[in-house]
Amino acid sequence: MIALRSVLFNALFYLNLIGQMIVLTPVYFLLPRKKAYVIAKNWARSNHWLFEKIVGTTFEIEGLENIPKGGYIFAPKHQSFWDAYALLPWLDDPLYILKRELTWIPLFGWYIKKQRMIPVNRNARGKVMAAVMERTKAEMDTGRQLIIYPEGTRRPPGAPPEYKYGIARLYRDLHVPVVPVVMHPGLFWPRRKFIRQPGHFKVIILPAIQPGMDPDAFLAHLVEVMETASDRLLVETVEANPRLVLPPTAVQRLAELKARGA
Question: CA–CA separation, 151 vs 260, rounded Å?
Fold first, then answer.
């Protein structure tokens, strides 16, 4: 039954993406940039509805009061395609730094160009990266929220942390708060797998880290805060969903936490 529901969900998920993108394109490009964001946010909400009704997966968000006003860096754990779009409805005017190749995709590339996302050549150095930072700062100065995954790429639940120094540089140069976010959607929507598992999980928005720390001290603090909360949430999520089929990384991490009495 889970496999059948997964197939149905995946089919409807992509039909929903393509269908809305085609049908709503004229509306999207006629609206002012920020107002047009409502289309992407409503698409995210429709995916939440599909996930709940077809797969049986729901979520809740704790800590919305920790989101500051104006510009900040939103720094979530990244485990799944789910967290690439799922929290858009709760952010005012989010911004991504993304690989430039995404802007070449028909329709999708036009959508992200309209939202003034920051494309970057990942092999670029020197002046190019300085220009990316200058453009990012200009967008942030208008009160936008920069979404950055501190580990850079998707990591399975329970995997050893691999935080990149890039977020410390952004923290240093942009002079805005960083909002850490922990969650385990990868237990329900695993990366590189078509299976979607039913259940319920939490997204926890932690207190913002204010600007002004030494970048190295900031990164060490960010890792400690996020990993401590992530471990606690992993245990809680697995206990609340006893039928979950866990990835090896989660099984190993849970065993480590149990051994040390966490």
Answer: 25
pLDDT tens per residue, range 130-184: 888 889 999 999 999 999 999 988 999 999 999 999 999 999 999 999 999 999 9
**pTM, to two decimals:** 0.93
Q: Do the Cβ atoms of 204 and 182 come closer than 8 Å?
A: yes
Burial class (CB in 10 A: 0-12, 13-18, 19+), 55: buried
CATH of 2-259, one of 1.20.120, 3.40.1130, 2.160.10, 2.60.40: 3.40.1130
